């Protein structure tokens, strides 16, 4: 087991490197998690481990990562179980944990207490393991939902946090758990706060996001349903840009103890997104408007100046190009059956 004050290797440029490290990704079979596992595999770690209970994730999401890293190991396990996680981290001699395991926002609207309990535990367990010296560094994933609706744009890391759903509150609480462990015990940790990720492999089943829902309905020739007037905005960031940023946040010691937004820096209305998606799909289906959902934020646009300063971050994939790739993936992968 690594000691609590284990030394941290740095690359030739003064940055830390994942090369030769034993890395664990919770939620690694999920949408963002699987892309992150694939990105980490390119860094030549010594060992690469995924913990996922497959509530949202799928083993098939890891095919590309396995092609890059044939010895990838997957544990089907609840990452909120302290004893189980302690056993895995110790047996695999883990150095770095990227923590992406979550209960998603839609689940919190029907089962709020469970969502809050689990999401807070999902932040506390890796923090406690780090405090006890089981591994060296935690990169914890937050959510832009922690901010609530924009009071100003772009929304930088100093923007007030006014969460509007139990999910958002649970993610903010988890962030504060990690930061409190940093403040009290000096753990080596940083927090990634991504905005609305999209791209291949986004969950198209229960608790699906807007892109797979719209694409699935359109490919089936069914109407697209919009909650509210469609003029609410989101900041859509391509999933590989987020995965790359997370690795670079790990590499950068100046990120420790900080929350770092990862976004495109541009806001897009839901109406504009649906128009662009239907154009990319080359289909024409009705768009139906329904009542707003409880807790939906009105406006989101992420400020990325801190990420630019710390890691030289720039989003590489435009929304147009990202949507084309996403649509192509769903055309080849989505089972189009009547709902």
In short:
The protein has 339 residues and is of the alpha/beta class. It has helices at residues 31-41, 63-68, 82-91, 105-110, 112-131, 166-185, 210-219, 239-251, 270-281, 305-311, 319-333, and strands at 22-26, 47-51, 73-75, 96-99, 137-141, 188-194, 196-198, 224-227, 233-234, 236-238, 259-262, 268-269, 287-290. Strands 3-2-1-4-5-6-11 form a seven-stranded parallel sheet, sandwiched between helices. A two-stranded parallel sheet has the order 7-10. Strands 8-13 form a two-stranded parallel ribbon.
Q: Can you put this structure into words, describing what you see?
A:
With 339 residues, this protein is α/β, with parallel strands linked by helices. It has two domains: 22-197 and 239-262, NAD(P)-binding Rossmann-like Domain (Rossmann fold, 3-Layer(aba) Sandwich), CATH 3.40.50.720; 210-234 and 266-303 and 317-332, UDP-galactose 4-epimerase, domain 1. Helix content is 38%, strand content 15%. The chain has eleven helices and 13 strands. A seven-stranded parallel β-sheet has the order 3-2-1-4-5-6-11, sandwiched between helices. Strands 7-10 form a two-stranded parallel ribbon. Strands 8-13 form a two-stranded parallel ribbon. Helix 1 (31-41) packs across helix 8 (239-251) and helix 5 packs parallel to helix 6 (166-185). The longest helix has 20 residues, at 112-131. It is globular, with a radius of gyration of 19 Å.
């Amino acid at each position: 087991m690594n000691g609590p004050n284990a030394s941290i290797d740095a690359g030739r440029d003064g940055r830390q490197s994942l090369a030769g490290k034993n890395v664990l990704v919770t939620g690694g079979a999920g949408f963002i998690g699987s892309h992150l596992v694939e990105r980490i595999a390119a860094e030549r770690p010594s060992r690469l481990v995924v913990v996922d209970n497959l509530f949202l994730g799928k083993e098939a999401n890891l095919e590309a990562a396995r092609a890059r890293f044939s010895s990838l190991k997957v544990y089907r396990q609840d990452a909120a179980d302290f004893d189980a996680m302690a056993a895995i981290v110790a047996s695999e001699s883990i150095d770095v944990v990227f923590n992406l395991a979550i209960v998603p926002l839609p689940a919190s609207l029907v089962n709020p207490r469970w969502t809050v309990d689990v999401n807070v535990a999902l932040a506390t367990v890796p923090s406690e393991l780090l405090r006890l010296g089981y591994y060296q560094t935690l990169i914890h994933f937050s959510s832009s939902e922690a901010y609530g609706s924009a009071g100003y744009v772009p929304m930088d890391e100093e923007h007030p946090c006014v969460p509007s759903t139990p999910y958002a509150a649970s993610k903010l609480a988890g962030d504060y758990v990690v930061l409190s462990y940093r403040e009290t015990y000096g753990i080596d940790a940083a927090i990634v706060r991504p905005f609305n990720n999209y791209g291949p492999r986004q969950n198209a089943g229960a608790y699906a996001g807007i892109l797979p829902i719209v694409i699935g309905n359109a490919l089936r020739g069914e109407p697209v349903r919009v909650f509210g007037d469609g003029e609410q905005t989101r900041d859509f960031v391509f999933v590989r840009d987020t995965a790359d940023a997370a690795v670079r946040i790990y590499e950068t010691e100046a990120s420790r103890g900080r929350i770092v937004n990862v976004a495109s820096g541009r806001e897009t209305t839901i109406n504009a997104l649906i128009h662009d998606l239907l154009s990319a799909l080359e289909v024409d289906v009705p768009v139906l408007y329904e009542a707003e959902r409880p807790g939906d934020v009105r406006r989101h646009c992420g400020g990325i100046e801190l990420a630019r300063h710390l890691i030289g971050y720039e989003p590489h994939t435009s929304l147009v190009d990202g949507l084309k790739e996403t649509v192509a993936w769903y055309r080849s992968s989505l089972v189009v059956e009547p709902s």
